[in-house]
Structure formats: structure tokens, C-alpha cells
Amino acid sequence: MTEPNPPLLQHFGALFRHPVEVPPALEFDERQNAPVMEECQLPLIDLTALIKHHNERERLACSTAICKASSEWGFFQVVNHGISPELLGTMKKEQLKLFQTPFESKASCGLLNNSYRWGTPTATYPKQFSWSEAFHIPLTKISEEAGYGEFSSVREVMKEFAAAMSELARLLAGILAENLGHQTGVFEDICDESTCFIRLNRYPACPISPEMFGLVPHTDSDFLTILYQDQVGGLQLMKDSKWVAVKPNQDALIVNIGDLFQAWSNDVYKSVEHKVMANRTTERYSIAYFLCPSYDSLIGSCREPSIYRKFTFGEYRSQVQEDVKKNGYKVGLPRFLV
Length: 338
Description:
eight-stranded mixed beta sheet; five-stranded mixed beta sheet; 10 helices; iron
């Protein structure tokens, strides 16, 4: 059978054979080697009161827990979130089919709007390399039949999955906005299918090093992210200057705050650095939904005095891409401080 794995070892090896000058050590790089705390469980929030419209006291308690976790952790997990286990399970099965396709087919057949990615093309030295592959799919492309080829069964499942994730993301974003004194629908007009997207991730087993990144340390350039992951583990986040290994919970979805919500909330909510560590013997799968605004949307702080200057999402994305191309890593919000 043709190998499904991308040539990660070959690409990674080339970074050793052809070394380049490593950029000056910055705080971003120094934190990569921070100690890892024991595995812990993220704040766990039951969304029943929001989904089923329980009484106001229960709704307020749930909302308070969401906002507290977003401020103190930047991450939390949710149960009773309204997305059925059957849908999640079906989406996982279809995801497996896609990634089990031979590498040559994934890389060349234009599958899912040519959205296949692997490794880190911009990496210039080993610590910038991600041992993973992914399909990075804009929501606007999910309905296009032409992009699925022999995987037509993926289309309907992904449409249902994307719709469910979108609804949940907007519910949570509304709660976070309301806590800051704004209408719950403040993001409805600026977050549309043209810039929101889904990323299907696979982290192949990595036998060469227990310290290999499945995904390099980073923050998310969106309002918020919802993650559906398997039970393999590997996700870590920065908490109190230490890496925290997140204990998988098969019943929960993970939610994390992105850069745009941190800027918009004037640092009330925290976009926290996180990474994925590869597993020596076992592959890992996850699916992420990213709530993003249109590129011309202005991201200004909701409170004054503002910590950040006003910028558009398009400007932010361009700056991130420029920094990654020039330095090999993302700088992010510090570029936009007043």
C-alpha cells in the first residue's frame, strides 16, 4: 500500500544538513524550553443552562465561569454543548478516510480546494518545524462538490459539523461580549463564512524525538477556536510561565481565546501560547474551528484607554505572514501595542 505519511523525516533532516543562522534568542524562543507541569484538567463548564435556556441564575453562573476561564486561563472545555456525539464520531471517521489517502494523492489532486498542508515550509531550523499534516478549509468551500472527488461522503458531514461549530462559537463569543457590556450579536455581522475556517489535523507518530513539536508554540489569530480532539493527548499551554499538559476529556470540546479577542477586550481575555507535542508511537487527530472576522473588519479595543492601536484583520494577517517569512515565527499582538 502507498505510504499515507508526508515526507516529514526527509524535510526535517534537511534542516540539520543545511543549517542557517538562528535568529537572536527572543522571549518567544526562550519559553519553548520552559518546564512542563504535571498533566492537568482545564476548567470544565457545563453549557446546559445556555443551550436549553434554563433560568437566569443558572445562565449567569455559566456565563461567569466562561468569562473567568477566558481571563485566567485563556482556555476552557465545555460539555453538554449541543453537538451530538454521533455527529462528532461521523466527522472523525470521515477525517480518518482523508488522511489515510496516499500522500501523493493528498498533495496533488486538489482535494478540498487544494487545502492540504504538511510540515512547515517556512522553517529554517529544527525548532520551527511541525510534525503534522492538515486540511485548512474555508467555510465557503465546504459546499463545493468539485473539491471532494472520491470523498463525496465527507461533504454533507462537514457541512453539518461546520454549522454546529459556528453556532456554538457565536454563542460563546456573545457571552464574552455581553460580559464586557456589549450586545451578544456584536460579531454576527463581521464574522462570516468568507474568513472562518475548519482545520483537520493529523499528527503522525514521530519515532525520532520525544521533544518534537507536532505544532510549534503559537497563539491563534482569531476571536476564538473550538477544538475537537482524540484521547492521545499532546496539547500543552502556557500557564504561570510553565507548560501545562492538557488531560484529554472524551466528552468535552476545548475552547481557547484568540489574539483578536484579547485585543478587542483590552487584555481582559487572554490569547495564550500553546503547542502540540508529537507522540513517539501513536498518531493523533483533531479538528479545529476558527471564528474569524472579514479582512476589512476593524479590531479596536472595546474599552479606553486602549492598549492596542486599531488594526484590521487583514492588516494583522499580513503582519503575521511577514514576520513568519522573515523570522520563522509569529510575533502577533506586541506589534500592535500603542
